[in-house]
Protein 1
Amino acid sequence: MAPINNMEAAISQVVETVENQLDQQIDQLRNLSVDDLETIRNQRLKLLKEKAAQQIEWKKKGHGIVVELKDEKEFFSTTKTSEKCIILVYSDDTIESKILDHHINIIAPKLLECKIAKINVKSCPFLMKRLNLTKTPVLILIQEFNIIEKIQRFDNIIDISNKSTEALLYRLHTSGIIQNEDLVAPTQKKKKVLTHRRKVIREGSSDSSDDDSD
């Protein structure tokens, strides 16, 4: 029973924390003056303008669409001009490459903060060798000039359905290349919650075992 009790305690603690935060926000709203509201309005307008300017800058760099890279020189120049990059290395003769190409074209407009591109495996032999890649397709995720992950398994991305698009977005979210929770479908969020609960149970079970050994 210890793992279940630990999980219930963890959930109760999260709920209590959220409730306290909401109470604090409500209290703050009740005490706001007209000047405070005007300040908040101006701050939000400033943030909206900054966000719009950032989106314009991203689009100037080719964000929002999938760009075909001709060679390795373009690959490296692309990773130097954009903070976040998602690059598909594909081959013409694999159905998996065609499926991923379909999905990255769908998600590109949603992920303006990322430069999304693709390059044919024939155009990047040095890159394949340097990154120790032996097969395609592969998604290379780059942030601040560093490769954070090379995705080579696409178990849940098996066709061109919306479900597979959602699975790809969730996979990218778990990698950390995108942080926007709104892009993760409810069904994928449930998986995340279940994964967290299993982790809590495992940790609770481990703690219980440690207590028993004492």
Protein 2
Amino acid sequence: MQFIRLVAVLAALIPLMATAASARPYGMAEVLRRVPKRAMPDSSSTRPRVALKPTSNKFRRLGRWTMASPYADSLAASWCGASISFCFSGSYLSIRTGSRTERKDSFNGGTPMIACSVSARSEGGGDSSTNENQVKTYDCGPSQEVVLVDEDTPTARPVPVKITLTLVDWASVFELESVVVDNEDSVQAFPDDPRSVRVLAIGDSITAGYSDGSQPIPLGCLSAYPHIAKAQLHARTGIELELELVAFPGVTLVAPTPEEADEGAGQGMIDRFFHASQWSDGPAALDEQPSIIVIALGTNDDAQDVSPINSPQPCMLSSAHPFPDFTADSDPETTESAEQVSVTRDLSSALASLRSNAGQGVEFHEWDIGGDLRREHTMDGLHPTIYGHHMLGDTLAKQLTTLVSSIAVS
């Protein structure tokens, strides 16, 4: 029996977690890179193409996808990190977006909506190991056809490659209506890797790859520390993480009181986790079956003065300390780094509370992966730069290595 391990990173995971949405507005200019409209060739000279529904068993889905309509087979994703993968060998590939596709929040730091990664299968490998070799980003609109591969694309080849489409922007809803290809046989299901380990990361703006606009996070959540850890761990061990995210900027751990909500407190993950998206009150289809859960929440509760009285485990919150805010410790106009503020608190009561409420076989780990971060590794004193995310991800991968390796061989 495979035990679920809960990696409780509640106090020392990142020494600079997300700021309160109300206290630090996201006021940066919107940067859009709209997909250019392509002139359609004359229909008489084109071969008939096949539109595959994303609900087909040819596609592997990770993250939270919901049926966009009870009358159609299109799927919608609202939580960043949701992805769909498949093997492709052909000369044409496009996607058709649904009418629900939209950017919900324009103050997203210029992060594109989706990313398409192409991975070549390893030579001589009998498993599903891959080598990333190309990632392109796209901003999509509703009811649009986005061409990903055509005759002029270097990836158009008869050798199968792995295609992964990912919603990388925390501020968007992406509806996938169909995947269009030359013929149905050019898409095949990607083989299962028996050594893969599924990980669920729950967090806020750091986990979602938030940018304040001053420095780009070019691939959104794919540039954030959980995906950096995934890549580093695969390079070290050859083990593939099936990584899922439930993360959103400004989210608190617990739900604020009505009075706190009126004063601008953000949404509570303790409620939003069970919803289809941060934009909807519809129930989520909780089909995640992770072996490891990484939790990085709690700082927004302190920053927004959210009371712990709504928590079913108040002692856990009382022990969770906010991560350091470098904005108060150094001049943002200088490159001098502030002294690292010690935020270590006794988490014994928090972990004891979690253990008492958990079933048998659940393990808890507390890791400090941000002890080496300084102000110059952040863009605003709180949110990591690309380099900061690499530091966090590399340290997290080192911590996860033993745990993941033991699960992969079990």
Protein 3
Amino acid sequence: MEQYSTAMGRVWSKLTRPVKNINVESRAHKVIDEIPTRAPNYPSTEKVLDKFINEHPELLDKQKQKDEGLLTNLKHIRIESFGPPPEIKSLKRPLPTITTTQKEPEYGFFEPRRIPVGKTSIRLALNFLADHQAAPKTYSAAVIATEHKLDIRQVEQVIKYFHTFHIHMPLELKKKHPKLLDLLETKKTIGAKDHPELLDTPVEPEVKKT
């Protein structure tokens, strides 16, 4: 049924197309030659225009006439340029000179080279947080604020709501592997081949084939 209706639609469009295109050019010229009607003004604007036309009818007639004096002055205007053309400087930023691949920053983004007074970086914040957690009396908020030139109230909020991570090991694991905590604190990659004592089962050494 759908195929039948589609075929009938195509046939009908072919039959009616010549009728639609009769005298199409003259009809198009008639539409183009029609003067478009201007959109009506707002009532308040219409009142202002009517008042201006009634009070200054001469200005309305004058704007429809050419001013011969202005046209004559316009013909005498001449622009002359002297000297070499001005140099056009490009405002585009220069391309980067470093084309090598940069190392991935430790904290996810590059740290600033200069830290303004009253500000700090993530690295410095982690350092004084770790110092405060290790020795709260020695590294108090006042000492940290004086050393890093920070606002003491902001430092108090930081050490109150932010803490660094600590590794807590079960006593059994610590007795079984006493060097594990030291290895984790050094931030080194711990591999079973380098430290086979960390595994319950010994690691068989690799045998190189010749």
